[in-house]
Amino acid sequence: MELLGSMVSVSGDPIQRLSAYMLEGLRARLERSGSVIYNKLKCEEPTSSELMSYMSVLYQICPYWKFAYVSANAVIREVMENEPRVHIIDFQIAQGSQWMLLIWALACRPGGPPLVRITGVDDSQSFHARGGGLHIVGQKLAEFAKAHNVPFEFHAAAMSGCEVERENLGVRPGEALAVNFPYVLHHMPDESVSTQNHRDRLLRLVKSLSPKAVTLVEQESNTNTSSFLPRFEETLEYYTAMFESIEAAGRPRNDKQRIRAEENCVARDIVNMIACEETERVERHELLGKWRARLSMAGFTQYPLSCSVTDAVVGMLREYDQNYRHEESDGALYLRWKNRRMSSSSAWR
């Protein structure tokens, strides 16, 4: 590790930058201070406006979040085509930007827009980035919907996904329901961590609500139950591809905005996967095959993604480096960097 310390740099090439954060994780693991360093990373957060700008940098230079938003919106728009009352439950509402795109699309619907109601489930990082609670999201979306003549209501569920119960979601009779899980289910502890198994509990809860569609986007990586060495290797392989893809945006290596974005939005996940174990390890990714098994066990059947979903993703990817590619397989869509699958998008009912 001492030798590596002189070879890595947060302003170096992709493997040097990734190695700097993996080395930090190894140091924390060796000193048995993984949770301390992880919590320190969380506590020493930048100001709200700084964190928002860092998240915005990553959103602009790589398509991982846009892939989630565009594919889920295309599914929801399709299944809600003739519905007069639409309710969307978003388990990672963040800044609510995803739904501005959908509200705009619904405003143009032949015959007029439906009544749209959105329930947002919160998380601490988004709360900090916004500089306040879910009412900020609700107000922004309400103003946007009003400007586009879309009837709109917002319901706040200010809690983590692990705490959500049916009564928190405000489901009403006569609504067509869609549920969105964008890069969030892997944070729910499963049976290998807790007997409560919130990962499967949440899926069963959502199934009991009889949604027209559930959209799931997750990183295509296998780190949930892996022992340390396979998990280290998987993290190295996956994030090598991610750092290479960020590099392709062409930002200078000493670009402070990109460095801070990687430190605050990517490094904490890497440190957590390398340094932490048991309940302290919250980054627990699974491959789509495993998610497929979990959703099937909860009673869902897969809703094959149509060509309109694929077309929306293909259109979005034109804004980015040509090494980003889409792949259609078994009714789902994958976002790839070169030959590596990075994320999967699937829909269920």
Order of helices and strands: HHHHHEHEHHEEHEHHHHEEE
Q: Segments where pLDDT lies below 50 for 5+ residues?
A: none
Q: Kindly report the average pLDDT value.
A: 93
Q: Give the N-to-C terminal Cα separation.
A: 49 Å
CATH class of the largest domain: Alpha Beta
- In CATH terms, the superfamily of the largest domain is Vaccinia Virus protein VP39
Strand order of the largest sheet: 3-2-1-4-5-8-7-6
Helix-residue proportion: 40-55%
Number of helices: 13
Per the CATH scheme, the topology name of the largest domain is: Rossmann fold
Radius of gyration: 20 Å
How much beta, percentage-wise?
Answer: 15-25%
Structural class from helices and strands? alpha/beta
What would you call the quaternary organization?
A: single chain
**Overall number of domains:** 2
Number of strands: 8
| CATH architecture assignment of the largest domain | 3-Layer(aba) Sandwich
The shape is: globular
Largest sheet: 8 strands, mixed
